[in-house]
Amino acid sequence: MTAPLPPRDFPRVRASHEVPEPLRNDVRALGEFLGRVLAEAGGDDLLADVEALRELAIHAHSDPTSDALAQAEELVSGFSLERAEQVARAFTCYFHLANIAEENHRIRVLRDREAHVEPLALAPDDSLPAAVLKVTEELGQDEARRRLQEVEFRPVLTAHPTEARRRAVSRSIRRIAELLAERDAETIGGMSLAENERRLLSEIETLWRTAPLRQSKPTVLDEVRTVLAVFESTLSDVFPAVYRRLDDWVLGEAAGTEAPAVRPFARLGSWIGGDRDGNPNVTAEVTRASALLLSDQVLTALEASAVRTAQGLTLDASGTPASAELGSLWQRQRTLSEEITARIAADAPNEPHRRVVLVIAARIAATRTRDADLAYSGPDELEADLRVVQSSLEAAGARRSAFGDVQRLLWQVESFGFHLAELEIRQHSQVHEAALADLEKNGVDGKLEERTIEVLDTFRALGHVQRRFGLRAARRYIVSFTQKPEHLAAVYQLAEYAFAGTDDAPVIDAIPLFETFADLEASVEILEAMLELDIVQRRLAENGRRVEVMLGYSDSSKDVGPVSATLALDTAQARITDWARRHDIVLTLFHGRGGALGRGGGPANRAVLAQPPGSVDGRFKLTEQGEVIFARYGDPVIAARHIEQVVAATLLAGTPSVEKRNADATARFAELASRLDEASRTRFHELVRADGFPQWFAEVTPMEEIGLLHIGSRPARRGLSVSSLDDLRAIPWVFSWTQARINLAGWYGLGTALEKVGDLVELRAAYEQWPLFATMIDNVEMSLAKTDERIAARYLALGDRDDLADAVLTELRLTRRWVLAITDSDAVLSRKRILGRAVQLRSPYVDALSLLQLRALRGLRTGEAPEQDDDLRRLLLLTVNGVAAGLQNTG
Question: Fewer beta carbons under 10 A from the terminal one: N or C of the chain?
């Protein structure tokens, strides 16, 4: 029996969540400090204007029926442009401080939980030990151990321009976070507290006075350095810390006294410096330089770690004698440098293990500086030396030394090698086609197009990186818009041109990237043809029949809408998994997910558990983009939790219970999926294919202006005009709708699809039983929480197309109404305390910035005062930064 949708709508009901007292205190303290800085820097009048707008925004948010929003808009219109800019910067500073307070509280909660809650008391998808126990219960201890040994997590860091903050601002934020964390210490008080407050005020003043906008676009190498800061501050230590925590649980009291039960399972990848699809700034020379920066960073870290390890090995030879192998290693080290070993021997007399590790540190340093006499040939040689040290310590009975810091250093070497992160190359299939046509016409020694020369140089750069830093440093070559098997064959053909007649040709694995709906549909046929390539068969014989396939979430969503893209990706994964099974292929699906929901964002562990049966198989690889890198990996406590959650979900995804649940749900709701797909896609295409839609989109969002914001080295477009969306990158598509408080890319078409189905009982059953559907609904609910219909309507009115504006607002209301009915909620996020609280803390202040952005956008669109255009554009870009900080997922 069909249950009708309840005749109710909740467009203006707000979820209310209690803010924990420690978090409230942090937000209040930081807000008061900011108020003092504003008054000192801009006078009481500035603080009064900020407070007036803040109070009106809060009133408008808490009582949507009032005229407070109109009053706030009137107040903003009365500001001078200078004052509007100051107010925008003040609200942006507030968001940075609120984000710091919330992160600090999250760390506080995680530490408290770790201190008081046993890992096995947590849900399996929230605790790696609980996940291992669940796998053991379902599959037995031997199989659980085997799967744990083979599990893989591969985050790939990308430089997509969604991190709107300057690096100087990020550094200031990190210093404030450290000072705020100090205030949690039980002993802080008196002069210590006064000094903490003084330093906080100083840092907040620095944040306020630091120019929020970059004066020029960052270079690719700037982007590499930005991400390296995350490695330096957290990741170099977090990976071994995660392994240690799991090993402590698996081995219990024996942990740290015997060989670890778990091998390293996380490997970093990077597109920064390798991804040249649509980015002319990524050249072959930049790729070489990027690899060098990565290597220099990891070798510096390994040297420091080796020195630290040596400092803890002051074990006297009389009580901890060296093994014969260690003695032999020391003699080999002496032949490498009599000067260094003599000095070290004098500094560490009768401490054989310490002196060997100090020479190891010196050799790591020599590897970085390219001292051929002393350098290691590769990470395997370094690992072999460390194994000798570890075995000697174990044989001498110093087991805790053997499996303590020495093991930590080994884990770092195994995880990062001498390359830190595998540099992956990406290029568009059309670029390859053009290069091949040029080469076939003119020959490799003929007069070639500049772009063809760069394509060949890219392959030579890949070979250079591989020869210098090893096979693990670079071998994956991703082909964007793979639409036929020839697009994969082209990679190997071009490599032959680049290395004709030489023995320097690198090992290459061409990876298809299926992005559009049509590409996903054709994926299996393309993969079948790929297997016919001789070079692919040779690689399969060499690598254990391993194949990687990348799936693009962004362009598929822009192509057919978020609902159809979600369903198409799920179907494609199931078909590709079946293809791999039939051909005895060890498949890794690479998920090209963004931070925003319109680009596949949302909780990664839930996404893993919703994948089709067999598609994960103990391996999960995804892109980590823009601001997501800092949100997930910027703090060691949060980074460790993220890694553990994703790896836990990766293990659980292969359990019989999870696979059966997903298989049963796919079969049970196949007809529902078909109806949702057809209705949502039709609705989405009605909008984006309407006459004049691209121009209207550019009018009602800051899409054009976002291209002026120097937030990445990559252009926002692939050379299109505003008359076409075909080549608009998915990032500005999502970013623009987010800024306009509409978030259309995350939900449009869902409301119509749900209305078309019309059976609330069936939809609620799907929400309960079908993880893919539940994840989609929950992600849409999150997206809706960051929309504001009243403000969105003001943006949409800029375009003078009532038909398109009405279509968007009608779909928004319909989507919200059905999502609330399916989740049996009276307000968006009413059942999600933590997320709801985060949105609740920020929304009124985002509204204030949106009104400032609207003022700037109206002025630019009307062109009434062209002499003010530069100032209006600056105000708009400042608000883009602020809204991004407030909403926390830009693109």
Answer: N
Q: Is residue 557 a contact partner of residue 759, using CB atoms and an 8 Å limit?
A: no
Length of the chain in residues, anyone?
A: 891
Q: Which residues contact 864 (CB under 8 A, 6 or more apart)?
A: none
- In sign, the C-alpha dihedral spanning 71, 77, 79, 82 is positive
Signed CA dihedral, 247, 251, 253, 258: sign only: negative
Mean per-residue pLDDT over the chain, rounded: 90
Q: Which two tokens stand for residue 664?
A: 């049963």
> One-letter amino acid identity for 18?
E
- 54-68: average pLDDT: 91
Supply the pLDDT for residue 634.
Answer: 86
For residue 185 the two structure tokens come to: 């210490």
pTM for this model (two decimals): 0.91
- Going by their DSSP bridges, the two strands 476-480 and 422-423 should be labelled as unpaired
How would you class 443 by CB atoms within 10 Å of its CB: exposed for 0-12, middle for 13-18, buried for 19 or more? exposed
Radius of gyration (Cα) for the chain, nearest Å?
Answer: 28
Show which residues are catalytic.
160, 558
Q: Using H for helix, E for strand and C for coil, what is the string for 503-544?
A: CCCCCCEEEEEECCHHHHHHHHHHHHHHCCCHHHHHHHHHHC
Quick one: average pLDDT of 178-202? 84
Instruction: Look at residue 162 in the predicted model and tell me its pLDDT.
Output: 44
What domains lie within the chain, and their CATH numbers? Answer: 121-166+218-423+628-651 (no CATH), 427-627 (3.20.20)
Instruction: Report which secondary-structure segment, H or E, holds 826.
Output: none
Q: In angstroms, rounded to a whole number, what is the distance separating the alpha carbons of residues 472 and 98?
A: 40
Q: What's the pLDDT score for residue 718?
A: 46
Q: How far apart are CA 858 and CA 81, in angstroms?
A: 13
- Asked if 287 and 159 count as a contact pair (C-beta separation under 8 A), the reply is no
**How many DSSP H helices and E strands does the chain contain?**
38, 9
State the DSSP code for 233: I
Q: Percentage of the chain with pLDDT > 90?
A: 72
pLDDT tens for each residue of 689-739? 999 999 999 999 998 887 676 555 555 444 434 456 665 666 678 889 999
